[in-house]
Amino acid sequence: MGLLKALSKVRGGYPGGWREYARGYQGNKTPPFQQSSDPKDRRSLIPPTGLREYWYPALPAKDISSKKPAGLRMLGEDLTFFRDKNGDVQALWDYCPHRGVYLSWGDCFWKGYLSCPYHGATFDGDGECVEFITEGPDSKMVGQLKAKKFPTVTLKGLVFVWMGEGEPVPPEEDIPPEFFQEHGQVLTAWRYWDCNWMVALENAYDSHVGFMVHRNSLSGLRGRLGVAPRSPIGSRPRVIGNKTIVPLRVTGTGKEDTRAYYNKTQKQPLQMHYPRINAKWPKYTWRRLWIWATEPMDRKMLKLPLFETNGEWIGQRLPGMVRNDYRDHMYTRWVIPVESGLSRLVYFHSARHKTAFGRFYEAAKFHLFHNFIHHFNFSDQDYDAQRSARYQYPEYLSATDLAVVQLRKLVTEHARGMTKSADMPEVTASEESMVEAYQELEAQSTGTTPTSAG
């Protein structure tokens, strides 16, 4: 590359040509996050750095030593974690109340205490200043100086922190139940997405990304649907307990599933004809080489409900979880805002095994299969597709966007710390087109089948 640039200079051209700064200094990076300024746009109400009055996963307890604190940014807030005299993990605001420096850059010279790197203000697990090294044992700062404390709880080796200003709710209200089960095994993976937390969350039940974003994922290659069917109508989400939304599949009505758009006596073709461009999608049919063997298993899975709907812990749950029940394990993707344009994702793979061999088998399956197939190969395709979504511009929503709208309503109307805006209409201008399109399609016969190409 260096040689090519040198030669380009010799001939008088700009190194890299027009492509060098085609998008300015942004390059291929995610565009900076900007929120909608329209007061009648539901997105303008969503906090850019997340919902505060909740428990969130922070970091593995094993990564916090007794010698050195650990700094972490969550919801735009800097925290420092260290161990108290009992060995329990505590969290303080990463801000020394004396001169404002990072406490996480300090040290734990004495077991259970954290000392500031600037003047040696030394705090206990409750944030009380118990000594001030540079002023000696007679310092008047002792008992006067206090660092802000964030409540924590450690479950199955993972530290959770209460980020709210109000009194913490019981951890059981926000933390998945498998963390409290005796035989619950929880395996974790961590990722960072260079985008806003809602952008990272809204794709989870997007009804119509399957045969575009995931068509060549290792999961999507097993059948002709490419994870989800192509239809102009999306799943109808159900709200449970004002905490969770669940998109239902076939429920008997024939109107609550994208697959119900097709005649039940036919299966969706591999290729479909798009008459206005006189083309077929997918362009090639090499899937036929193997779907004769993999599709029967895929079809069997589709006959099952997408989720068991007997609780509030399956679906998209506040403050930022996606939870799917795969029957042999529970999948959780928890999106934690770091800053307005950066999200930390923690994946939980949960199973119940009473024997050591069972736990070993589950861990091996997680590390050798699930972690890559689901968390990286599949999810990173969502990230690559969605990260340039820009909240500052108007949207024209489709009938397949029901779950996205319902998630936004859940956040803006039912999340702790949120107050519903009196000026926000029940249906916003951006949602009106979606509602009209959905009602029109829903009124059609469930036997309607779009034009196919084989």
Layout of helices and strands, plus pairs?
Elements: H1 2-10, E1 55-60, E2 70-74, E3 77-83, E4 89-93, E5 114-115, E6 121-123, E7 129-132, E8 149-150, E9 152-155, E10 158-162, E11 184-193, H2 197-202, H3 210-213, E12 237-240, E13 244-247, E14 272-274, E15 279-281, H4 291-302, E16 315-317, E17 321-325, E18 330-339, E19 342-352, H5 356-386, H6 402-414, H7 429-442
Antiparallel strand pairs: 1-10, 2-3, 3-4, 4-8, 5-6, 6-7, 9-10, 11-19, 12-13, 13-16, 14-15, 16-17, 17-18, 18-19
Describe the structure.
This protein has 454 residues and is an alpha+beta fold. It has 2 domains: 62-163, Rieske Iron-sulfur Protein (3-layer Sandwich), CATH 2.102.10.10; 179-442, Naphthalene 1,2-dioxygenase Alpha Subunit, Chain A, domain 1. Helices cover 20% and strands 21% of the residues. The protein contains 7 helices and 19 strands. It has helices at 2-10, 197-202, 210-213, 291-302, 356-386, 402-414, 429-442; strands spanning 55-60, 70-74, 77-83, 89-93, 114-115, 121-123, 129-132, 149-150, 152-155, 158-162, 184-193, 237-240, 244-247, 272-274, 279-281, 315-317, 321-325, 330-339, 342-352. The protein has a 7-stranded antiparallel sheet. A 4-stranded antiparallel sheet has the order 2-3-4-8, with no helix packed on it. Strands 1-10-9 form a 3-stranded antiparallel sheet, with no helix packed on it. Strand 12 and strand 13 form a beta hairpin. The radius of gyration is 26 Å and the shape is globular. 34% of the residues are buried.
